[in-house]
Design a protein that fits this description.
Elements (H helix, E strand, L loop, with lengths): L2 E4 L11 E4 L4 H29 L2 H22 L2 H6 L8 H25 L4 H29 L3 H26 L2 H28 L21 H35 L2 H11 L6 H20 L3 H37 L7 H26 L6 H64 L1
Helix pairs in contact: 1-6, 1-10, 2-4, 2-5, 2-8, 2-9, 4-5, 4-8, 5-7, 6-7, 8-9, 8-13, 10-11, 10-12, 11-12, 11-13, 12-13
């Protein structure tokens, strides 16, 4: 039988958080996360192909604009709660606190999306796509609350299984809805429905099994009770103060990647936005590995940092950085060597712009390294410094887009991202180096006391 330990104070919340031991090994977690992210990334990539092949660049652009409008809002609403919960080694907050705050911020995000559509001058179909995308993002946000619990228990196989089913089902929903109606709106409705089904049918059930004090997850098909939030005003305010900078940072990261799309839509139109979005979708291939490694390594990195294991923390961090560099290099090589044939085969001849492809993948490579470094500094609980660093990156991309896109078009958009991501890599790596130096000092102090 598995050892189950109640976290102190859990009886006050109705849905106790448990420390289940043992979790999966790091290798098993990485393997599961890789497969889950691979299936999810392939599904999202296929969605762009479906819209490009069954529709036109305008349809791809419409879908991309829906994502670009809603993503920063919902990324802010997450407050990076999943990563904070996964690295909450000392159980500073209970699951009910994380879940309650997630429900509040998701509702606020939905209200903001509706308000933006109401006051903007979007065409009717585009406005409906944005609203449907917002509903899809809301379902994803609730699932993310349960993913944080799975990460904290080092059971990333449960996240992977959710994504393995959710990705293809979402693709089927989008493809069927678009094929039958020719409308991106109904395609996104199909996508949102698929996400809601998995959230209600799998994610919430698996979370309930962890949160039921008497549950035996391997043998019980349904939990004794469903997860529920804890409405403790003091704890919620404390959690907001801790995670608000991360929420702003995450919003800015999403906003930064979407800034070129806003400028392209405004200066070049939805057709060119569709071309750019289709080529840029290749960026989502390598993050399968980046997210698998980063998410899997975060709890382990946090434990090394908390236990002052400087050498182990440094070794794992360097491995993550190195993998980011390799993935970026492979992406650029593939784009330069086979860019035109690949784009023509997958999307069609009007998307074949190998030079643009190469520049986009160069920017993506820089982003992979920065993302790995971000996992490292988050595991070290370096939260507040992330906001000024990301503000620097976002402002750089914004200024670069303002100057480059009107003159150089899509090439200017790619160059703007390269400039911003290069600045991001330098600043985040410098912060990771500072975290390592601080840990070295703590480790030496510990040895001196012994």
């Amino acid at each position: 039988m598995r050892k189950v330990d109640l976290v102190e104070g859990a009886e006050d919340m109705g849905t106790p958080v448990l420390n289940l031991s043992p979790g999966l090994s790091l290798r098993a977690n990485i393997s599961w996360t890789f497969v889950g992210n691979a299936v999810n990334a392939a599904s999202w990539f296929a969605m762009t192909i479906v819209l490009a092949r069954l529709g036109s660049p305008e349809h791809v652009g419409q879908f991309a604009l829906g994502l670009a409008t809603t993503a920063p809002i919902f990324m802010f609403a997450t407050l990076r709660l999943r990563d904070v919960q996964a690295t909450d080694i000392n159980n500073e907050f209970l699951f009910g606190d994380y879940f309650g705050l997630r429900l509040i911020t998701t509702l606020i995000a939905l209200i903001i999306v509706v308000a933006i559509v109401a006051v903007s001058s979007f065409e009717r179909e585009t406005a409906l796509v944005i609203l449907a995308t917002g509903a899809s993002k809301a379902s994803e946000a609730v699932s993310d609350a349960f993913y944080g619990l799975f990460m904290q228990q080092e059971r990333l196989d449960r996240i992977a299984k959710s994504m393995i089913v959710k990705g293809p089902l979402s693709l089927a929903g989008l493809g069927l809805g678009f094929y039958l109606t020719g409308s991106v709106f109904w395609g996104v409705i199909g996508l949102a429905t698929a996400r809601a089904v998995i959230m209600l049918g799998y994610d919430i059930r698996k979370a309930g099994m962890i949160l039921s004090a008497a549950a035996e997850p391997q043998s019980q098909r349904f939990p004794a009770e469903l997860p529920r939030p804890r409405w403790n005003g003091h704890m919620l305010r404390s959690l907001v103060r801790l995670t608000l900078p991360l929420g702003v940072v995450t919003m800015l990261i999403s906003f930064t990647s979407n800034i070129p799309r806003y400028f392209i839509e405004g200066h070049l139109g939805s057709h060119q936005l569709g071309v750019f979005a289709a080529i840029a979708s290749f960026q989502k291939v390598a993050p399968t590995v980046v997210q698998a490694l980063g998410r899997s390594a975060s709890p382990r990195l946090a434990r090394y940092y908390a236990l002052k294991k400087a050498r182990a923390f440094r070794r794992l961090s360097i491995r993550l950085f190195g993998i980011g560099v390799v993935l970026g290099g492979v992406g650029v090589f593939v784009a330069l060597v086979g860019g035109s044939p690949i784009l023509t085969l997958i999307y069609g001849p009007e998307y074949a712009q190998p030079g643009l492809f190469g520049l986009i993948m160069l920017g993506a490579g820089l982003d992979y390294v920065a993302t790995m470094a971000l996992f490292v500094i988050t595991s070290a609980r370096y939260f507040r410094i992330q906001l000024p660093l990301q503000l620097l990156t976002t402002s750089s991309v914004l200024v670069a887009c303002y100057w480059l896109i009107p003159s150089y078009g899509l090439i200017g958009a790619a160059l703007a991202l390269i400039i911003g991501y290069a600045i991001r890599v330098g600043s985040v790596l410098l912060t990771a180096w500072h975290a390592q130096r601080a840990l070295n000092g703590l480790s030496l102090m510990g040895h001196a006391q012994i």
